[in-house]
Amino acid sequence: MKRILFGLLVLLGCFSVQGQQVVNIESKRYDSRDSALHGEIELLFNFIQNQNKIINLGNKINLTRVRQENTVLFLAELNFLQSNSKNLDYNAYQHIRFKRELKPWLSGEAFAQTQFNQQIGLKFRGLLGAGPRIRIFYEDSMKLFVGPMWMYEYERTTDEYARNVHNRMSLYVSFLYFKSSAFNFDIVSYYQPDLIDFSNFRFSSEARLNLKFTTNFSFRISYSQNFQSHPPSGMPNNLSTLRNSFLYKF
């Protein structure tokens, strides 16, 4: 029983941003034109003391403020798991993004991000980026956006001999289908090549299907794929995650 409980804690501690080379910001946008502040804050703390001492900490912050043509988005997430003073997992990111609507189909964006992830050998990654967000179409049941952005990257990994500074293109494509209130599907893909060496790139894609059974109860299945051409030594090139969850909103 204790082993099962420990395994569940490990799963919960690593569940949210495990293995993510690219943070999916598109899935966390709040699509609204009202001027209120929207968001959610989640805090997690678990402590178990038996023959082992297990500490699990976490938080999630998602805040959006819209004012006329300007939108500010702030995201932060932390997951930390320790057993008997040994760190089993530590991953976190912080992201702030500013968007200004220039035309109904065109916006300009700028962002800054920091990221840490023990599981993929990422000690630190800092990003600065800017570029357009283009609406290809926005019909009554479908949305399609494209964002070709420039991104400056500084990172330190467990590979001491890796190059730390990169100028990358960060191209994302975001598609959402919502024909009925009971069903919606979205997919977001990111392609991030080094602008000097195109053989050095990252690719990430996440697809999510939401089925709404009642006003409050729904089911979600999501699948994500993360590929990095030049991972730190000893780390895999490809990571995939399949998640199934039931949601209750009230």
Describe this structure in words.
The protein has 250 residues and is mainly beta. The chain has one domain: Porin (Beta Barrel). 5% of the residues lie in helices and 67% in strands. The chain starts with a helix and ends with a strand. 17% of the residues are buried.
Could you give the topology of this structure?
Elements: H1 2-14, E1 37-49, E2 53-67, E3 70-83, E4 86-103, E5 106-117, E6 122-138, E7 142-157, E8 165-180, E9 183-193, E10 201-212, E11 217-228, E12 238-248
Antiparallel strand pairs: 1-2, 2-3, 3-4, 4-5, 5-6, 6-7, 7-8, 8-9, 9-10, 10-11, 11-12
Please give the oligomerization state of what you see: single chain
Q: Give me the Rg, rounded.
A: 19 Å
Order of helices and strands: HEEEEEEEEEEEE
CATH class: Mainly Beta
Number of beta-strand segments: 12
Strand arrangement within the widest β-sheet reads 1-2-3-4-5-6-7-8-9-10-11-12
Uncertain regions: pLDDT < 50 for 5+ in a row? 1-18
| Shape annotation | globular
Query: What structural class results from the helix and strand content?
Result: mainly beta
Cα end-to-end separation? 33 Å
Corresponding CATH architecture: Beta Barrel
**Largest β-sheet summary:** 12 strands, antiparallel
The proportion of residues forming helix, as a percent range, comes to under 10%
Within CATH, the superfamily carries the name: monomeric porin ompg
User: Would you give the CATH topology?
Assistant: Porin
